[in-house]
Specification:
With 185 residues, the protein is of the alpha/beta class. Helices cover 51% and strands 18% of the residues. The protein is built from 9 helices and 7 strands; from the N terminus they run βααβααβαβαββαβαα. Strands 1, 2, 3, 4, 5, 6 and 7 form a 7-stranded parallel sheet that branches.
């Protein structure tokens, strides 16, 4: 495992959509929103790439407003899909490949379905995949826990949002460090 470098990292936000968010346990949803917000703000400050997916947006609605604003500020695409694995959608697979990154950080929902299947497919490619445990949710805690186990067995590195952003930073004392420190408090 090597240090995460923002310029060679893609943050992939999976299906954090209005109607799906409403079905999540409140604490898990708060964690996902916090994790994704921190990662998006840190990506903006440090130069990581970002893509978001939306599972059947006609039925599940758009990305939640707080994240949609951050994605817009980053000019990050929000790509619709009907496949569970984002990698099975040609447009999303192409967008991931175009970024020419070594590492992919995956956050979103649901852990045991779309997150797991995407992680499994990414791990088969030449990517090192990271899943922050505070950045994923499922409607049931046992499904979330099982999804994390499946992600790890598929080859992902389970971590936390703070571990990722402080790895990106390398050291304290910079303006970026101060900005990110405020985000994680």
């Amino acid at each position: 495992m090597e240090r995460l470098v923002p310029s060679s990292t893609l943050v992939l936000v999976i299906d954090v959509q209005e109607r799906l968010a409403a079905a999540m346990p409140k604490e898990q949803m708060a964690n996902v929103e916090r994790s994704a917000s921190i990662l998006l703000e840190a990506a903006k400050l440090l130069g990581a790439k970002v893509i978001a997916t939306e599972q059947y947006p006609q039925g599940l609605g758009p990305t939640i407003p707080s994240l949609a604003q951050k994605l817009a500020a980053l000019q990050a695409p929000r790509l619709p899909k009907t496949t569970f694995s984002a990698c099975d959608d040609e447009a999303i697979a192409r967008a991931i490949a175009e970024h020419d990154v070594r590492n992919v950080v995956v956050v979103g929902m649901e852990t045991h379905v779309c997150v797991f299947q995407t992680v499994r497919d990414l791990a088969k490619k030449p990517f090192e995949v990271y899943v922050p445990i505070d950045g994923v949710a499922s409607r049931r805690e046992d499904h979330r826990e099982t999804g994390l186990v499946l992600c790890e067995r598929a080859g992902a590195i389970l971590t936390t949002t703070e571990s990722i952003v402080f790895d990106w930073l390398k050291q304290a004392g910079s303006d970026e460090f101060r900005a990110i420190s405020k985000l994680v408090k």
